[in-house]
Amino acid sequence: MDERQVKAATLARLREEYGRRRKPIVTAEFSLGSSGIRADLVVFANETIGFEIKTARDTLRRLPSQMHAYARYFNHAVAIVAPCHLPNLIADDLCGASVWTYDGEGVLSVFRTGIANVVDDAALDDLLTQAERRTCDFRAAMKARYAATSSQFWRAVSRRSIRPDDLPLLSRFADNRAQARRFAEERDNRWSHWLAAQGCLETA
């Protein structure tokens, strides 16, 4: 499985766990303040959960620094690792994170249950922009940032399986990127038509 497939499987598991309850706010590729680290997936609910994914193609070289950052910013951290990495995990490197793994069918399972982290308010401030610090608290800021795209994602997948190609729905900038692509395509088409009219291109 590649990272996108693991993300899709993780989101499917979260959907199952929340069941008929209101689905949590989720996002992908979340920057962890000044640490220079991005969380692969994040859940913002009553508590925050950060997911770090290590597929068979990845190494564990950066895992200690990543889990240290996760422990600073999230109430719970989960390292989702390919089975080949399990023998090489070092407990101290996990900083209390849970460990999940997956089989060839993409079924996730818990390998190790971690511990909860005590997150300092100063750490949460590091995740906010200056404007957010002035106008709202962490929970409100994350809701303002990600609630719309998260709701859009859960609605889109509500009656079917979650696929890797659903992940762009979690991007706050997906609409802007799609619009930019449309504008680029329209510009290229207009340019091609103009060139054809000038006799610069062969036409069928």
Helix proportion: 40-55%
- The neighbouring-strand order within the major sheet is 1-2-3-4-5-6
> How do the helices and strands follow one another from N- to C-terminus?
HEEEHEHEEHHHH
- Average pLDDT, rounded to a whole number, is 89
3D shape = globular
Largest sheet: 6 strands, mixed
Seen as an oligomer or otherwise, the chain set is single chain
Number of strands: 6
Q: What is the structural class?
A: alpha/beta
CA-CA gap between termini: 44 Å
The DSSP helix count reads: 7
Q: How big a fraction of the residues is strand?
A: 15-25%
Could you walk me through the main structural features you see in this protein, from its secondary elements to its overall organization?
The chain is α/β, with parallel strands linked by helices. It folds into two domains: 3-163, no CATH class; 173-204. 42% of the residues lie in helices and 18% in strands. The chain has helices at residues 3-18, 63-73, 91-94, 121-125, 130-135, 138-156, 174-197; strands at residues 25-31, 38-44, 48-54, 76-81, 98-102, 108-112. The chain has a six-stranded mixed β-sheet. The longest helix is centred in the last third of the chain and has 24 residues, at 174-197. The radius of gyration is 21 Å and the shape is globular. The model is unreliable at 174-184 (pLDDT under 50).
